[in-house]
Design the sequence.
């Protein structure tokens, strides 16, 4: 075949495969379940958070690797590393970012932030400092320290990923920033930079960890639970709300967060009932969350409120008992029942 | 009296509805609002937002507070509604009564103070609850020690004007946003400008401030250089997509793509598309303007062929020339004039010059585009036979927004200003020679480069 004809055939084949990709994408999009569809706003914030998260790791690795290389006299490669970018694009194109755990963690963070930002503030009384600020000033040094840590970590705009996820992401980015020309000294420098980043990662600085420390330090007694949960929501401190709930129900932060982010809220209401919270508290929590989250249906909740409020706390505890088991245990139970069903 | 004056803003009006949502009693303000919406006593409230709040309070059996915006004839009112169950009835208390503009731009995600260098938030007691960690540290503050402290622990507020009034106090008293509170960072004494908007809680009460900090040195540098980068950047982002959509839709209406419409409407659509394109061009120009006015603006210079630039620019404007029945005479295909410049920017200048020439030429006229070496310089010359430019106006056309006749259609007074700045950034210049009635002749000169073919 003459060269032009071959290249024309190749172009046609490429165009066909692009059209195919477009069609498959359109089919996925058109038949997506409504409840799985993300809002444009969520997609946008997610994309930005993903880019920022990867970008932060990329910048750190490039700078540190470049510093090491420049120290060894490899200035050209160091400068190439410093001026490079695009790890996120490479990882995206390679499909490596379709990582369930990564998407789950970032999406939870996005939805958490969206709801926290939209929560209606409720001020207890004028000229009184907000809940967290008050807690940061109490004489109990453990509580004050934890409250201060949460104030700080809530102000951080980046995401602290769980260690295992951060570990995977750092190595992915490390692979993505390798220059086109392979060179063992460069690889060595990138690897050292990656180890350094892994060593510096401190999950304890995340809002989740600070909020859990605070909830544990407060250790709310049953009668304190109601005002604390409502005040945390009124102060728009969703992390603290989740942590207090988690501590009271014996869940870890991520489990409690999943319950709070679920738009149907069924498991959340049961967990609140298991904590012996009354009708009015559950209604106030539902109203605040639904004001902050357009996916929620407050009228449907109102239809079920009497029923929810009548659930016996002991029954409720039994119904959500499974949630309180260790995540790995629950995962294994789920996998087993899935395979026995099929 | 459907637009409440400032006095009404402090009014708390009361009403009661029964289990079915029927209005039993109402203060005059609520009664009037409900009647204007077509409601009456004894029937279900006609303002849907109010009915919803009352219904939720009854169904959930908890007090419900909400900010709602209701349409009241030709204005929109922002109301703070609180509904509380009282036995068999629901009590409504409505305050606020603020008139709001009918349309509000969507808030920028995660950033209320877009032109601020960094952000802060304070609670109702004006204690800091948020600080942008990195920026605050860079400004010499210790955000970790300041969170939870009063705003004044971070900033030394300064007075303004003769009475040394604090804008923040005035703003708090009026519950209005402010953007002009001068202050100094306590730790470093660096001058900053604070801005903030008021955050409210569900009952409309003051819940704190959400603000931004602008470093003042940065602000001054921007004022000297005209448009701040954030302004043009924001303009570009905010306007380009909607304008492109307006133009595309207007174009398909004008082309009657979805079926026939009356010719007048097709013409209107054409006008809309034309106006939209004009605005898009203006945005391009403003973005360029912002770039060329930056002190560190440089162009990557390489060897380019000015004759090729002239031919391409003339080709790009072929349709417009044909529409105006103007002939564009361009350099022959074998002419080469090597010069030192930036290809894209040279093409932009040539397109601007030829576009102007076509615009000011009568039907049947000829616009001549030529390129040649003159000594150590390479020139691209565009001459027309239009009405020409008076000597007194010749300097003005290169000024920012400098137009000879502002009533004339097309153009925004930025093109030639940008073109000259670009020419000078390439080490060349752009000049005009003209006399009234004798047409105009624009010459772009760049340094000649050795002919690549030689």
Sequence:
């Amino acid at each position: 075949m003459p060269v032009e004809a071959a290249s024309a055939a190749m172009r046609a084949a490429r165009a066909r495969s692009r059209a195919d990709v477009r069609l498959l994408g359109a089919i996925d999009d058109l038949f997506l379940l409504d409840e799985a569809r993300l809002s444009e706003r969520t997609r946008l914030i997610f994309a930005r958070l993903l880019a920022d998260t990867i970008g932060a790791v990329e910048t750190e690795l490039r700078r540190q690797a470049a510093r090491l290389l420049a120290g060894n006299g490899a200035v050209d490669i160091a400068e190439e590393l410093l001026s490079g970018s695009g790890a996120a694009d490479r990882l995206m194109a390679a499909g490596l970012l379709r990582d369930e755990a990564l998407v789950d963690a970032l999406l939870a963070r996005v939805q958490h932030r969206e709801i926290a930002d939209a929560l209606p503030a409720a001020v207890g009384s004028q000229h009184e400092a907000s809940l967290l600020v008050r807690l940061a000033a109490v004489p109990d040094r453990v509580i004050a320290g934890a409250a201060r840590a949460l104030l700080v970590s809530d102000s951080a705009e980046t995401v602290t990923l769980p260690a295992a996820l951060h570990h995977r992401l750092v190595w992915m980015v490390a692979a993505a920033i390798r220059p086109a020309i392979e060179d063992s000294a460069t690889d060595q420098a990138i690897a050292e930079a990656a180890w350094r980043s892994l060593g510096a990662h401190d999950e304890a600085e995340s809002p989740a960890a600070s909020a859990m420390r605070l909830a544990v330090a407060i250790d709310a007694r049953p009668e304190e639970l109601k005002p604390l949960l409502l005040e945390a929501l009124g102060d728009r401190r969703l992390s603290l709300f989740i942590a207090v709930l988690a501590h009271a129900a014996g869940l870890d932060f991520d489990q409690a967060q999943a319950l709070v982010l679920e738009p149907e809220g069924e498991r959340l209401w049961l967990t609140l009932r298991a904590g012996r919270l009354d009708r009015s508290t559950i209604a106030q929590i539902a109203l605040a969350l639904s004001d902050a989250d357009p996916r929620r249906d407050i009228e449907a909740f109102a239809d079920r409120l009497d029923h929810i409020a009548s659930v016996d706390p002991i029954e409720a505890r039994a119904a959500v008992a499974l949630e309180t088991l260790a995540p790995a245990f629950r995962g294994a139970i789920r996998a087993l029942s899935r395979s026995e069903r099929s | 009296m459907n637009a409440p004056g400032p006095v009404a803003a402090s009014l708390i009006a009361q009403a009661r509805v029964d289990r079915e949502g029927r209005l039993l009693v109402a203060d005059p303000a609520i009664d009037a609002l409900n009647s204007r919406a077509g409601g009456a006593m004894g029937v279900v409230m006609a303002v849907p937002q109010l009915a919803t709040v009352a219904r939720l309070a009854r169904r959930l059996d908890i007090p419900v507070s909400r900010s709602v915006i209701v349409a009241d004839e030709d204005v929109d009112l922002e109301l703070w509604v609180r509904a509380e169950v009282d036995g068999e009835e629901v009590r409504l208390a409505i305050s606020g009564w603020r008139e709001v503009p009918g349309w509000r731009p969507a808030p920028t995600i995660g950033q209320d103070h877009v032109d601020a260098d960094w952000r802060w938030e304070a609670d109702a007691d004006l204690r800091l609850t948020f600080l942008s960690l990195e920026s605050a540290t860079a400004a010499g503050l210790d955000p970790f020690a300041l969170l939870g402290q009063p705003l004044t622990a971070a900033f030394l507020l300064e007075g303004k004007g003769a009475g040394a009034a604090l804008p923040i106090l005035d703003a708090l008293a009026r519950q209005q946003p402010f953007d002009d509170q001068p202050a100094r960072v306590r730790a470093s004494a660096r001058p900053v400008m604070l801005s903030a908007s008021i955050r409210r809680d569900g009952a409309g009460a003051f819940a704190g401030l959400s603000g931004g900090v602008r470093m003042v040195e940065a602000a001054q540098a921007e004022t000297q250089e005209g448009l701040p980068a954030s302004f043009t950047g924001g303009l570009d982002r905010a306007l380009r997509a909607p304008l492109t959509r307006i133009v595309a839709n207007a174009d398909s209406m004008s082309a009657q793509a979805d079926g026939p419409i009356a010719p007048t409407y097709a013409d209107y659509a054409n006008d809309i598309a034309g106006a939209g394109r004009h605005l898009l061009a203006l945005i391009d120009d403003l973005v360029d303007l912002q770039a060329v006015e930056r002190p560190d603006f440089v162009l990557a210079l390489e060897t380019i062929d000015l004759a090729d630039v002239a031919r391409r620019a003339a080709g790009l404007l072929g349709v417009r020339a044909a529409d105006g029945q103007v002939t564009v005479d361009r350099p022959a295909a074998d002419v080469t004039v090597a010069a030192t410049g930036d290809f894209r920017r040279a093409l932009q200048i040539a397109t601007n010059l030829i576009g102007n020439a076509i615009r000011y030429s009568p039907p049947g006229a000829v616009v001549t585009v030529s390129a040649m070496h003159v000594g150590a310089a390479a020139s691209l010359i565009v001459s027309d036979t239009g009405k020409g430019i008076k000597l007194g106006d010749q300097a003005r056309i290169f000024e920012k927004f400098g137009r000879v006749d502002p009533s004339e259609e097309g153009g925004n007074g930025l093109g030639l200003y940008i073109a000259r700045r670009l020419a000078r950034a390439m080490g060349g210049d752009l000049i005009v020679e003209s006399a009234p009635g004798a047409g105009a002749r624009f010459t772009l000169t760049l340094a000649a480069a050795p002919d690549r073919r030689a």
Q: What stands out?
A: The interface with chain A takes residues 56, 59-62, 64-66, 109-110, 123-125, 127, 129-133, 143-144, 147-148, 199-203, 205-208 of chain B (CB under 8 Å). Chain B has a mean pLDDT of 80.
